[in-house]
Specification:
The complex is a heterodimer of chains A (269) and B (214). Chain A has 269 residues and is α/β, with parallel strands linked by helices. Chain A has ten helices and ten strands. Chain B has helices at residues 2-39, 43-58, 61-71, 81-107, 110-118, 123-153, 165-176, 179-208. Classes of the chains: A alpha/beta (269), B mainly alpha (214).
């Protein structure tokens, strides 16, 4: 897989010419990327480069101004939005279309964003039961299984404030998994964590990658990206400057901007 | 002195308390609607709410009460004392509580909306299941203030002939000429009602605080 190559049937996610501005501030100039089923794409880049905005556009938390997003779910039915068409017509993107796109993916937030007034189990079950209207018993069994898996079954009746950051983020991941999305989105999942808690979360994401989940991860953890990602893309100035095999690209970047960025990360002072 | 306690208590139980409770309940519903209008992206909706709140907060409650009870009949709209009082107090609470609820909704972090949308919720569902429960916790102390003010403000209803605590006190005082004793007694009763409300506020806060770090 490769962000700019021609899309194939294998591609779960295809993004073409994605554009987004906030007022006069052009955050995404033109983003092209593809992610094949079961692959992991890591987005790296300086802060303000637009990498988080890409992720938010994929989940419909931001509505792009131009370009196209297509996600082909497990049932091989493609959900696509052509933002150029909506912009040309001068109409907002229909809420239904955004909802359909959003249903294909689930996001793990930098600051977890768990619901503080709900227990761990309620946090996980809220989406599947209330929104997806799946049978409560079935959802609960699945939720308990997922919580057991991440070692938090004894916290199922706790409220988020009673958990450490690492535990909260693992609940955040379980909440995303419980939605049974085609695509998992991670927005700097360990940036808000104390250093000693980062490992647990990264290990879990790595396990999920090994199980064949398709993911897009915005991260600053280069070592992690090298290990987990099938492909790394360096985002700067609202566009993908360079992408490729993580081992190769992180060791031997082709672009000066990539080189500078990596150098700054490796030698902060 | 003790003889006068019964009419005052009667006034509190059949006048002040039901008047305050019903006006507060109606006012809260009104306030929630106004708060949502104020937050709406549709400008005309938020403008209507803004003007409403400005008028209600910018004019004396007593004047509002008189306009409804003594003013409207000249337009052919005659409303009895009790409903007049409930209408006036509800409108008033609505104006004040709307700003409290709006602030409480805004105090919920944006990430909560995003997480709700992320799991597939509509705006309405995110509001009712995720945002409002969290806003409720924040708004209990200021809304309690509004409620306590309302309890005391219901004494104004005596001026539009509603038989409540203060009107009973006035009548007994006029009859017995014991002004000091009766007005102090009335004050004491208002205070007791407000003490009960304050302790209720404490219980409610504790209950809503169970999911917050201490």
């Amino acid at each position: 897989m490769s962000p700019t190559d021609q899309p194939t049937d294998q591609n779960l996610l295809t993004v073409r010419g994605l554009q987004k501005s906030f007022g006069a501030n052009r955050v995404l100039t033109s983003i092209d990327l593809t992610v094949a089923r079961g692959q992991v794409l890591a987005l790296i880049g300086p802060s303000g480069s637009g990498k988080t905005t890409v992720l938010r556009c994929l989940n419909g938390l931001e509505v792009a101004d131009g370009g196209r997003i297509e996600i082909t779910g497990a049932d091989a039915a493609a959900t696509a939005i052509d933002f150029d068409a909506a912009t040309a017509a001068g109409k907002p993107v229909p809420r239904k279309a955004l909802g359909a796109l959003r249903d294909q993916s689930a996001m793990v937030f930098q600051h977890y964003n768990l619901f503080p007034h709900k227990t761990v189990l309620e946090n996980v079950m809220e989406g599947p039961v209330i929104v997806q209207r799946r049978p409560r018993a079935e959802v609960e069994a699945e939720a308990l299984q997922l919580l057991t898996r991440v070692g938090l079954i004894d916290k199922k009746d706790s409220y988020p404030f009673e958990l450490s950051g690492g535990q909260q983020q693992r609940v955040g991941i379980v909440r995303a998994l419980a939605l049974r999305p085609a695509l998992l989105l991670f927005d700097e999942p360990t940036s808000a964590l104390d250093p000693e808690l980062v490992g647990d979360v990264l290990r879990l994401i790595k396990e999920l990658a090994a199980e064949g989940w398709t993911m897009v991860i915005v991260t600053h953890e280069l070592e992690f990206a090298r290990e987990v990602a099938s492909e790394v893309a360096f985002v700067d100035g609202g566009t993908i400057v360079e992408h490729g095999d993580p081992r190769q690209m992180l060791r031997n970047p082709q672009h000066e901007r990539t080189r500078q960025f990596l150098h700054r990360l490796l030698f902060p002072f | 002195m003790l003889d006068s306690l019964w009419p005052l208590l009667h006034g509190a139980i059949t006048g002040t308390i039901p008047l305050a409770l019903s006006s507060f309940a109606i006012g809260l519903v009104l306030a929630l609607g106004l708060a949502l209008m104020r937050l709406s992206r549709r400008r005309w909706l938020s403008s209507i709410a803004r003007v409403y709140i400005s008028v209600v907060r910018g004019t004396p409650l007593l004047v509002q009460l008189f306009v409804i009870f003594y003013g409207l009949p000249s337009l052919g709209i005659v409303i009895d004392p009790w409903p007049s009082a409930i209408v006036a107090f509800s409108i008033n609470v609505g104006g004040y509580a709307a700003e409290v609820i709006r602030a409480a909704i805004l105090s919920v972090p944006k990430g909560q909306w995003e997480a709700a949308y992320m799991i597939g919720m509509s705006h309405r569902r995110a509001l009712t299941r995720i945002i409002l429960p969290q806003a409720a916790r924040v708004s209990v102390p200021p809304l309690s203030n509004t409620f306590i003010s309302l309890v005391k403000d219901t004494s104004l209803a005596s001026l539009i002939l509603v038989t409540e605590l203060f009107r009973e006190a006035q009548q007994v005082a006029a009859f017995s000429q014991q002004f000091m004793a009766l007005y102090l007694e009335a004050a004491l009763l208002y205070w007791v009602i407000c003490l009960v409300l304050s302790s209720g506020q404490g219980v409610l806060e504790k209950r809503l605080d169970r999911y917050v770090a201490h």
